[in-house]
Write a structure and sequence with these properties.
The chain is mainly alpha-helical. The protein contains 6 helices and 3 strands; from the N terminus they run H-H-H-H-E-E-E-H-H. A 3-stranded antiparallel sheet has the order 1-2-3. Strand 1 and strand 2 form a beta hairpin. Helix 3 packs antiparallel against helix 6. It is globular. The two termini are about 25 Å apart.
């Protein structure tokens, strides 16, 4: 599976797809690639927040001052990272959640209920407007 934004990230040595190993792809490799989120991790670290991949870290991110909104070059990258981090937390902590390709080829999270979440869009809305809060999106995903 190809993600259009992956050109700016380290590529795994083997082909990857959220579809899983049954089709010869490395689902763990996809999860690792999508969890990098370097800019978001850097911005969080400057405020003393270590992004550990747990749901509580989403609430801490919601409290960050949105200084990236003043930088038109940083905003899109941070928005993508926020969405990918949100997806990473959901996939790691909710049973049955997995990465899946969206209609546009971008990453989505498929929940066990069958619901799909466009985490890139959600990250962009959070980075641009502060809503929906990442912690609230996670809580809604946990409900199914």
């Amino acid at each position: 599976m190809r993600f259009p934004f992956a050109h700016r990230r380290r590529r795994p040595a083997t082909p990857v797809s959220p579809g899983g190993a049954a089709r010869g792809y490395d689902a763990e490799g996809v999860a690792e690639l999508l969890s990098e989120c370097p800019l978001l991790r850097e911005r969080a670290a400057t405020r003393g927040i270590a992004l550990s991949g747990d749901p509580e870290s989403l609430a801490l991110l919601d409290q960050l001052p949105p200084l990236w909104r003043d930088d038109p070059e940083e905003l899109p990258a941070l928005a993508t990272d926020a969405g990918l981090y949100l997806g990473t937390v959901i996939v790691r902590s909710l049973p049955g959640a997995r990465w899946a390709p969206g209609e546009d080829g971008g990453p989505e999270v498929a929940l066990a209920s069958g619901r799909r979440m466009d985490v890139e869009r959600l990250g962009r809305e959070w980075a641009e407007n502060g809503v929906p809060e990442l912690s609230r999106v996670y809580a809604e995903a946990a409900e199914g």
